[in-house]
Amino acid sequence: MAHYRRSVKIRLTKKGDALFKHTFAEHIAYIRPFFERALSPKEAEVARNLLLRLRDSFLQKAEI
């Protein structure tokens, strides 16, 4: 990252990306019941929207 010398940008290989996708799918299946017990469908939708806003914020270029 040219603008910040102490950071390094990395990427997964194709094999690593495939492993991540497989593992993440299993993780989602594992944690889904916890979310379903803790949140109503409406609360889950609010949480989803807030998390997407946070994700989008990280994806925007940082203004330094």
Question: What can you see in these coordinates?
Answer:
This protein is an all-alpha fold and 64 residues long. The protein has one domain. Helices cover 69% and strands 0% of the residues. It is built from two helices and no strands. The chain has helices at residues 14-38, 41-59. The protein is flat, with a radius of gyration of 16 Å. The mean pLDDT is 89.
Mean of pLDDT: 89
Low-confidence stretches: none
Helix content: 55-70%
Q: Ends: how far apart?
A: 12 Å
Total beta strand runs: 0
Count of distinct structural domains: 1
Question: Given the C-alpha coordinates, what overall shape results?
Answer: flat
Structural class: mainly alpha
Secondary-structure element string: HH
- Strand percent estimate: under 5%
Radius of gyration: 16 Å
Biggest sheet overview = none
Number of helices, where a helix is a run of at least 4 consecutive DSSP H or I residues: 2
